[in-house]
Design brief:
The complex is a heterodimer of chains A (about 300) and B (about 55).
Chain A lengths: L9 E4 L5 H12 L4 E4 L18 E3 L4 H13 L4 E2 L2 H7 L2 H10 L7 E4 L2 H11 L3 E5 L9 E3 L2 H13 L8 E5 L6 E8 L2 E9 L12 E5 L3 H14 L3 E8 L5 E7 L5 H7 L5 H17 L16
Parallel strand pairs in A: 1-2, 1-3, 3-4
Antiparallel strand pairs in A: 5-8, 6-7, 6-8, 9-10, 9-12, 10-11, 12-13
Helix pairs in contact in A: 1-9, 2-3, 4-7, 5-6
Chain B lengths: L1 E3 L6 E3 L9 E3 L6 E7 L2 E5 L10
Antiparallel strand pairs in B: 1-2, 3-4, 4-5
The chains are: A alpha+beta (about 300), B mainly beta (about 55).
């Protein structure tokens, strides 16, 4: 029996159906929610009058570029998207994430942005080694590089300068925080932290997509509070918040992910948390809020983030 | 249900109710395959991972 009161179906936008998306489809089926599966590769993003039949769109597009442009267009058609384009744009950009976290008082490692590779070398020297160099936009830990000394910095900058495309020459530099061989991931849905995992790896990058091991982590009040504050800072209703444990025991937010991949989280928690079902519950809640408001009014904030 | 891998023609087993756009891996050549039709099931080579994919 469906718990949604809206007559319109929800939509799930995805071009690649992974185990996460299959779990979401299964959760929608279990709750008897009407939905359509949209392949973003086949969307025709024309400027158009009138809104489509979907009440809310869950954005599971794996490509950042496609996710942003699809969300922007769907929003212009009057359809709320989870996550909204504005949140994706912030989460997809390391520097904008840092600025958003800072503006909202969320602890995050010291960082700087160099607009040229040459400036990056100067910034690294001024910040002091070790630092971490990251592309401004990037995913799955690609090209994230720890730099321990000036000689390595010169080499890294030389490689960055040789990369194609002006955006590749923007360099995000962050303090390298000494931490245990793990970091933490908290998943936030609709302004509520639903669970946490440790991500452990033999290498220094702990991304599950790179083979990092996911283990259940107790969700403390402090973890939940910080994760919710981080999700709110970037305007994301659904967020995977990555944190590190600093040497003094404090927590610091490294990044906020908009397109949460949760197979590792689900594996770690087993049947104690059904993440896909919680996502679907939030989707239904948003669809019901959307159904209750006049269609010519702007999308209310409560549909997209808990502020 | 089985169907031929479009890359190596291995007879691979497909889940009972595959989803459109689901990605499978051929057990023989390890190629990633995308379900491009479900009735009947049709497979094609899945797109290569792009630079802006993932979280």
């Amino acid at each position: 029996m469906s718990t949604t009161s809206t007559a319109r179906p929800v939509a799930v936008l995805a071009s690649r159906v992974r185990v996460d998306e299959k779990r979401i489809f299964a959760a929608l089926d279990r709750r008897a929610v009407r939905y359509v599966q949209l392949d973003s590769r086949e969307l025709r993003l024309a400027d158009r009058a009138g809104r489509p039949a979907w009440s809310v769109v869950l954005n599971r597009e794996i490509s950042l570029s496609r996710a942003v442009h699809a969300a922007r267009t769907l929003e212009s058609w009057g359809v709320p998207v989870l996550n909204p384009a504005a949140a994706i744009e912030v989460c997809g950009n390391n520097w904008r994430t840092t600025l958003a976290l800072r503006e909202h008082g969320v602890p995050t490692p010291r960082a700087s942005l160099a607009l040229t590779p040459g400036a990056a070398l100067q910034i690294m020297t001024e910040m002091g080694f070790p630092v971490v160099v990251k592309p401004v936009t990037g995913s799955w830990g690609r090209l994230v590089t720890p730099v321990y000394d000036r000689a390595t910095a010169e080499l890294v900058v030389e490689y960055i300068a040789a990369l194609a495309g002006p955006e590749s020459h923007l360099v995000y530099v962050q303090d390298l925080i000494e931490k245990p061989d793990r970091d933490l991931r908290v998943i936030v849905i609709g302004g509520r932290a639903v669970g946490a995992i440790y991500r452990r790896s033999a290498g220094w990058r702990t991304n599950v997509a790179r083979g990092g091991e996911a283990l259940p982590c107790p969700l403390t009040d402090e973890l939940a509070r910080l994760a919710c504050a981080a999700a709110s800072a970037v305007g994301a209703g659904i967020a995977g918040v990555d944190l590190i444990e600093c040497a003094d025991g404090s927590l610091s937010v490294l990044e906020v992910n908009h397109g949460v991949e949760f197979s590792g989280f689900q594996l770690a928690h087993g049947e104690s948390i059904d993440l896909a079902d919680q996502l679907v519950g939030y989707l239904i809640e948003c669809a019901e809020l959307e159904a209750a408001r006049p269609s010519d009014r702007p999308v209310p904030d409560e549909l997209v983030a808990s502020r | 249900m089985t169907t031929l891998c479009p890359e190596c023609e291995y007879q691979l087993t497909v889940p009972d109710q595959p989803s459109l756009n689901e990605v499978l891996e051929c057990g023989e050549c390890r190629t990633e395959l995308e379900v491009v039709a479900t009735a009947p099931v049709m497979l094609a080579l899945a797109p290569e991972i792009e630079e802006d994919w993932g979280e």
